[in-house]
Amino acid sequence: MRHADFIDTTEDAANGFALLLESADHTTTVSSCPGWSLVELAVHLGGVHRWARAQLLGGGQQLDRQTPDAPLADRDALVAWFREGAADLVATLRELPEDAPCWALYPPARASTWARRQALEAALHLWDASDSLGIAVPIRPDLAAAGVAEVAEDMYPRQVALGRMPSLEERVDLRMLDRLERPGDGGSFGLRVRLGPVDETPAGTANTLSGARPADATLELTAEAALLLLWKRRDLAAVDARVTGSREVLERVLGNPLAP
After folding, report:
1. What is the CA radius of gyration of the chain?
2. What pTM does this model have?
3. What CATH number should be reported for the domain holding residue 29?
4. Mean pLDDT per segment of 10 residues, for the chain of length 260 residues?
């Protein structure tokens, strides 16, 4: 996906979330975000919008996350507050060059990293909210595939660096069954992403795995199912997937906090 596509996705997903806020019961339990109601999820996402925008404008310095003052007692005011934060974030992303330097959760420290991260944040939380209402909004294969790559190549190494989990010792390949457009030539291919030791080379997508050690387990499934699995929105028994190799290894790897 291109930089502009990620920004458009953030805008569309935030608008979809706002539409749910306009009519849904704000006390609805969001089962995929344990302990949260729909309104608590809205406050979280609205806060993330404002925090991410602050990082984009922070001159390369990490700014502390502050709890925003969301108007919880009034539905219309809450929706307006949510829409304002999303609109400001989208406008800032569109105004800045994609290579504009800024602090980011993981390299590269530039605006394009936030464009991808916020598209995934908004789309996944729209899925959370809509799933809680029984109308789960699907996540597009190209976006979901970008999210799977983000977990394997950015989030998981960050979790290890922060001491939240040890580096994996075993290797799991995720083969996504979707037909994804290849940039530049209009072709299509199935993406493969590896979870394995953080310091192992090569690592990452199928294009760099040709000389790597064989996987201990391989999971074949759609990109959306893979993304939901990695973010603990679904468990292995709840997705349509084909496992080859060691299921024990697969379950052990997926049991780690690969994403925050």
Report:
1. 19
2. 0.92
3. 1.20.120.450
4. 97 98 96 96 96 93 77 92 97 97 97 98 98 95 96 97 97 90 54 93 49 89 97 95 96 96
